[in-house]
Amino acid sequence: MAAFIIFALIVLVFIAIYQIAKAAETASILRGNEKEQYFRTNKIMAWLLLITFLLGMYGIYKCHMALIDKMLPVPASNHGVKYEEMFYVTIDPYRDCILPDPGRCYSIS
């Protein structure tokens, strides 16, 4: 429940910032500073996008660290080992090429 309240508060803060920016934009249009306000609003939105991205990446990192103990354990059979090997090859095809012997994957003629 606390997480929901925190999330709701964050959303409300962003809504308040958006409403304040809209009110300032409308006031500047009435004053005749429309072009200046356009660039200022664009700059504010760019910073909000960057902040949202960074907070999202931090949230993904914290979630990963919190749930790392719940990830799948070592496979119990040879069949599972092969599936995991295929999975890792799909994720990073050059994993085996970089560490053991770089020459076997990249042939320089």
Protein model, in words:
- The chain is mainly alpha-helical and 109 residues long.
- It has one domain (2-93).
- 75% of the residues lie in helices and 0% in strands.
- The chain has helices at 2-31, 34-67, 78-91, 95-98.
- Helix 1 (2-31) runs antiparallel to helix 2 (34-67).
Question: How many separate helices?
Answer: 4
Q: Would you tell me the overall average pLDDT?
A: 80
Counted up, domains total 1
Which residues sit in consecutive blocks of at least 5 with pLDDT less than 50? none
Order of helices and strands: HHHH
If you compute it from the alpha carbons, what radius of gyration comes out, rounded to the nearest whole angstrom? 25 Å
Separation, N- and C-terminal Cα atoms: 62 Å
Shape: elongated
The counted number of beta strands is: 0
Q: Assess the beta-strand content as a share of residues.
A: under 5%
Helical residues, percent = over 70%
Taking the sheet with the most strands, its summary is: none
Structural class by secondary-structure content: mainly alpha
Question: What keyword list fits this structure?
Answer:
109 residues, 4 helices, mainly alpha
Secondary-structure map:
Elements: H1 2-31, H2 34-67, H3 78-91, H4 95-98
Question: Outline of this structure?
Answer:
By secondary structure, the protein is mainly alpha-helical. It has helices spanning 2-31, 34-67, 78-91, 95-98. It has one domain (2-93).
